[in-house]
Amino acid sequence: MNTLTINNLKLTYKNGHQAIQNISLEVKNGMFGLLGPNGAGKSSLMKTIVGLQKPTSGSIGFNDIDIVNNPDYIKKNLGFLPQDFGVYPKVNAYNLLNHIAILKGLENKEERETQIRSLLEKVNLWDYRNKEVYTFSGGMKQRFGVAQALLGKPKIVIVDEPTAGLDPEERNRFNMLLSDISNEVIVILSTHLVEDVKNLCSEMTIMNKGQILKTGKPKALISELEHKIWSKSINNDELEQYQSKYQIISKQLIERVLHITIFSKTKPEGFDAVTPLLEHVYFKTLA
Ligand SMILES: Nc1ncnc2c1ncn2[C@@H]1O[C@H](COP(=O)(O)OP(=O)(O)OP(=O)(O)O)[C@@H](O)[C@H]1O
Ligand SMILES: [Mg+2]
User: Could you name the domain of life of the organism this protein comes from (predicted)?
Assistant: First the structure.
């Protein structure tokens, strides 16, 4: 079992922006979802964990080793797929993986070849191994990104919004791949897609404005809202009146009719009961 322990982490950028404000978390093997809107601080947190930037204060431990002061330990055991993988050189998939493997310290040639072959097969890119990576589609690039992250058999894999821009089929394929690897290692997945977290993650946290707002198992967080979510269709001009009376957690146009969903411990007059979903947890937490 691997454990990542974050205590009272703070990060202030040079321009004074506090991107991480006192975050504490414990993550163990399995898939952990980091859910939050744009600008919440997901990438800032991930880049700090992987050692690309030093926190202003606080500690990060991986398997009881202080990785802020011993970044080599996490680097040896880490796979990272950044949000913006950047420009791919005009190199084919096989040779690029080989190059990254050497950078990661996989010195034994045979071991490297075995790993690269098995990873390319795993991400379904073996048939494309001689194609240059910059010509790959978005989904293929993301799967290549997972292959490079898994080189060297990492104990912790961090993927930053990996499914953004993928079509539904490619997204499923990608999610299955992640789910497959998360049994023996820690996988931290950041996203603003509630659905990805619902389908994949055994533990999750919702963050916004550099802070953790809620942490738990998706199912448990959903059951907290049992019999507390209600909806009603209203006229546009009634919105203000409902807003002042109820705790609205989301508004939606369905066939051009405005539907509001509210949080209430008792049944409000004229509202229908709604089975709570992870979306409701997310919107209620952010509201
Ligand atoms: N290098 C930097 N210098 C100053 N501010 C930064 C820097 N990087 C990020 N920020 C700010 O920190 C906040 C958090 O940004 P971050 O990229 O971590 O959010 P995010 O949750 O990953 O968002 P997204 O979903 O859009 O990727 C934002 O307000 C952002 O503008
Ligand atoms: Mg980000």
Answer: Bacteria
Cα-Cα-Cα-Cα dihedral sign, residues 43, 45, 49, 52: positive
- Dist. CA 225–CA 191, nearest whole Å: 22
Calpha distance 14→23 (Å, rounded) = 19
In three-state form (DSSP H/G/I as H, E/B as E, the rest C), the secondary structure along 135-176 is HCCHHHHHHHHHHHHHCCCCCEEEEECCCCCCCHHHHHHHHH
Q: Distance, CA 39 to ligand 1 centroid (Å)?
A: 5
Contact 37, 93 (CB under 8 A): no
Banded model confidence at residue 240, pLDDT cuts 50, 70, 90: very high
The pLDDT tens digits for 184-236 are 899 999 998 898 898 889 999 999 999 999 999 999 999 999 999 999 999 98
